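#onboarding

Welcome to the new folks! Below is a worked example of what a typical request in this channel looks like: someone posts a single protein sequence, and someone else replies with the predicted structure as tokens. Don't worry about understanding the tokens yet, we'll cover that in week two.

Example request:
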Amino acid sequence: MKRASKDEGAAVATSSSSEQEARYAKVIVELAEKVPEKARPYVQKAAPIVAKLIVFCIIATPYVLEAVKKVDEVMQKLPMRIFRAIIGFVICFFGGVFPLTIAAVEAWKVCGGDEAVAAMKTLRNELKKCHEESKKDDVIDADGDGVADVNQISGKELVERKVKLVLKVVKPETVSSQVALLYTGWVGVMATLKIQFAKTIALGAAIGQRLYEPAEKFLEPTLVAMVPEEYKQWVPWCVKWGCKSIAVYIAWWIQRIISAFHSAIRGGLMCGKELVNYAHERGWISTSDEDTYMDEIVGWGLAVFGFITQIMLGFAVPFPLNLFMWPLYMVEGFIAWSINS
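Example response:
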């Protein structure tokens, strides 16, 4: 009986997911009418895949939030000094991998990070209300034929129905004020990072110009001779953007080494200080960091080891830790793109 009930539950969940996928695919196909005509067929073909991804994200979100909540509970139980020591250790050994993310977090705190977090919580509550009302709307059967109304209407009608629902549920003044807070904070972060990494951008531009000069004389004519006539116009642009990409990569690699050196020292000293002070508070050692050089010995030792480790790993997170770090890689790439663009 239990096995049968589990199978029935799985079948219901599968059916519900399929209906959701069909609805989202219908919405995406309808929205594809607004995109340029050349891109429209590709958007329509991708609609089922995008719909599956949306449903997967919706299903996974509660589990992700629960995992974050559990990690937060564990962190709350840790002594504050141990928590800071862990942060210092991470900065010491991975600061060169995510230099922009670390710099963005620091800039975020200065540019109103607490207000932005409160704004995100408020927007999350508004999104939660929309989701709950949408779930109620998905089961409405006004004509009583046993089939939900949302499964019997066209994509255009479904989009209009959901838009009206959102406009009815969401408070515009709340969304407007909270989005303004987030945007202001992000602009402040970008301005800070652009100033902080202006030398890197300037270095990338200078390297790109130097690389393009010989490439224009020697590489570009060779490629023009090899490429068919109808594609020759793309050669100068491909060479130029290729040189720029290489230059930006070199510039950020140099900046990554500098950031790794700085973060190793900063994180190592932070971790050493907190560990020695914690040991002193627990009575494991008789003197604190104010009375001894033990914290500096531990800190500088971690700094040297952390910097060498980052270099040896090629500024990458080793397996299996890298499986849990992919969101940070995405954030790092997005911030780098935002600064360079």
